[in-house]
Protein: Gamma-glutamylcyclotransferase AIG2-like domain-containing protein
Organism: Streptomyces dioscori
Amino acid sequence: MSRLPFFVYGTLLRGEGNHDAFLRGRTLPEVPATLTGALLYEGPGYPYAVETPESSGGLIHGELVTADPTTYAQLLAALDELEEYTPNNPANLYERVPRDVTRLTDGARVRAWVYVAAPAVATQLRANGNLIRGGNWRPA
């Protein structure tokens, strides 16, 4: 399995509730980044990234989090548990997928793990969800 960094956009952002519980002491740099090809929707206390067709655009603001190599496996397991993600489980609320994100510090494209809405959740959000305009869960 690839040891990719993580793109976070909700409760795992610095200053949010799950950051200290899951990321503090387990990461190296955390830098501003964006994900294209997805829209952000409100969830029950946390957001969902919903992927869009390539031609539809979409932009989500977040952070690129690089795990400390000594804690990578533990962090991956903890984040999968937080997001209630199990590989190949149709009951998942999120899917963990590799996507290219843009690191805002230097404009570099970086492959990262992103937790996106699972297909059934995405369909429901597209039909009835509340879109977070501007793609920033924590507006400035």
